[in-house]
Write a structure and sequence with these properties.
This protein is mainly α. The chain has one domain. It is 53% helix and 9% strand. It has 6 helices and 7 strands, in the order H-H-H-H-H-E-E-E-E-E-E-E-H. The strands form 3 sheets. It has a 3-stranded antiparallel beta sheet, with no helix packed on it. Helix 2 packs across helix 4, helix 3 packs across helix 5 and helix 4 packs antiparallel against helix 6. It is globular.
């Protein structure tokens, strides 16, 4: 009889543990998930990003971007990838607006245009229908390939993990660069470039 009571108590303890123990474990896991989501993005401010954008080398009309210049593009791209998208969009808008006020818009816009092609892993051979224009660069046609194809990473060519320019800056026309809209579109449709090798 005592043996039966002992087994009943053990069984009840097992049931209680299964119900409440698992519940507590799930609750703990949920808290951890929330902490992970909360810590998903780095605490980067809009002002900090704008300062980083300003320090990028512009798209040159001759010569090349220096090795240190490319390394800094990679550094800024990594920061953007880890930053809350809303902060990124606000930073892009404020950077373009500030550049417009200082009347140095085209040169400053070109920095962000190149940066987008470092942040995102864009195909260098894609259907022309995939091309989206957020700024009227004068030499856009150089991005075109045979058979109605286009290099979406233009004016950057990636040799493995190493970037290089394949076209010089030749100016632009039309409205200011809609950088935050392009960022939003690219983030929705393409993956971040893997920059861990740097």
């Amino acid at each position: 009889m005592k043996s039966d009571i002992l087994w009943i108590n053990i069984l009840m303890m097992f049931v209680i543990y299964s119900l409440f123990g698992c519940s507590n474990r799930d609750s703990s896991e949920q808290i951890n998930d929330e902490e992970i989501n909360h810590e998903k993005y780095e605490m980067v401010t809009e002002k900090y990003l704008v300062n980083m954008f300003s320090s990028l080398e512009p798209w040159p009309s001759s010569g090349a971007i220096t090795e240190n210049g490319w390394q800094y593009y990679i550094q800024v791209a990594k920061t953007v990838q880890k930053t809350d998208p809303e902060v990124v969009k606000e930073s892009l808008d404020n950077f373009i607006y500030a550049s417009l006020e200082e009347q140095i818009l085209n040169e400053e816009e070109s920095k962000i245009f190149l940066l987008m092609r470092v942040i995102f892993d864009l195909p260098e051979d894609a259907p022309k229908s995939k091309l989206r224009s957020y700024k009227g660069w004068s030499n856009w046609q150089l991005s075109e390939l045979p058979n109605n194809r286009v290099n979406l990473s233009w004016p950057i060519k990636w040799d493995g993990h190493k970037p290089r320019l394949i076209s010089y800056y030749e100016g632009s026309m039309g409205i200011p660069y809609q950088a935050s809209l392009e960022y939003e579109y690219l983030k929705k449709n393409y993956k971040f470039r893997d920059l861990n090798v740097w």
